[in-house]
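Quick log. Single chain, no ligands specified.
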Amino acid sequence: MKVLANDGISQSGIDALEKGGYEVITTTVAQEQLINYINEKDITVLLVRSATTVRKDLIDACPGLKIIGRGGVGMDNIDVEYAKEQGRSVINTPAASSHSVAELVFGHLYGLARYLHNSNRDMPLEGDSNFKGLKKAYAKGTELKGKTLGITEYLAKKTKKKDVAMLIFNKNLSVSPLTTHLALKDVHKKITKQKIYTQVNLINKFYKTKFNKLPRIAITGLNPHCESNFQNSEEDKVIIPAIKKLRLKNNKINGPFPADTIFTKFLLKKYDVIIGMYHDQVLSPMKALFGFDAINITLGLPFTRISPDHGPNYSMLGKNLSDPKSLIQALKFLDK
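-> predicted structure:
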């Protein structure tokens, strides 16, 4: 069986195929000559990367071609569904670039932490006149050792925006945790009236800009049933006074609601957004209701930042098990 690796292949790949009894051809054939070459050389397997395309015309014209392989993740240069309809096997290598992509991401993180992006831009422009000032500004950077940051906090820090918020958005219901990537034992320390005011203002601005409406907002309490065994609970000291002040400014806001009842069907119909006191208090029921049919929007940044509403799951990598719904929704939202 002959294999044409038209866009190149490593020596280890050649050795593995030849050990399996395949004849490997590494000639790079021009796209317009590929059909004739495959038929003349009786090629059974065509391996490509991004340079070569495998479209309907080639599939129809090469009946002896049984397997089409893509060395990489994306297969936009192959008419995958049509090939499968014609009985051809289409394969790729979804985990092949995982390590290099991960290293690239960490490289960018280190570069950002050390302000390399700014120094590369500013030094050529101002280095002659302001070298000492730029050196002082960029020499120190930020050490990453021992730091735990979510992407929301990281972008806020890098853009020097103090007031940002996480919004998990679905067209029927959105949720927004007042605190994000924070240990549960520290949540009560970070709940303040000002933080609630800021969160509501950011959400209002987003809904007015995007949908020309003032959203109906519900706020949860922190403690079970919005009660505490101690005097001066977070509800009494912070949450209720903040809600009262916001209502005086004509915000459509109610609460505090117990977190175990706000997500009932009767109450859900009344609100566009639920603000919770901590991450899992609102994200867990959100995923129970909508699965991955939601997106993560960071409010308050000087640019639009959207991502899927879930983190990476490395145990599923390369197994074709991931649900792409949230990624698709994120792309559609950006396209509106």
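The mean pLDDT is 89.
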